[in-house]
Design a protein that fits this description.
By secondary structure, the protein is α+β, with helices and mostly antiparallel strands. The chain contains two helices and six strands, in the order H-E-H-E-E-E-E-E.
Length: about 110
């Protein structure tokens, strides 16, 4: 193998090894099955997923809690959980994208 070919292979290997970036915290996919609109409490969400990456209010003054995890390399995978919390601190509905478990991927809002 020529020197330039060896160098090209080394560059490709190093790019593959170093080209992966993550953001957020990976969530346990099995925990998503526990989510029950109208039943799950804000305290349970905090216990299961930790502090949300984003906490805002919607136009009706209800809390919107968002957790996410992104892993990017040659492919991108993501988990995004968004939960709407009512005034009684109960999850009203949620949306979920889970590329790590294709059966759950890109589910619509659940009420």
């Amino acid at each position: 193998m020529t020197r330039s070919a060896v160098l090209a292979v080394a560059v490709v290997i190093s790019l593959q090894a170093g080209a992966c970036a993550t953001m957020g915290t990976l969530m346990e996919t099995a925990t998503f099955a526990k989510l029950k609109p109208g039943v799950t409490t804000q305290a349970e969400l905090l216990e299961w997923f930790g502090r949300p990456r984003s906490l805002t209010l919607d136009t009706n003054g209800k809390e919107v809690m968002v957790w996410y995890y992104f892993r990017a390399g040659f492919t991108v995978k993501q988990q995004i959980l968004s939960a709407l919390i009512d005034e009684k601190k109960i999850m009203e509905k949620y949306t979920l994208i889970d590329d790590f478990n294709q059966d759950e991927a890109q589910q619509p809002a659940r009420e």
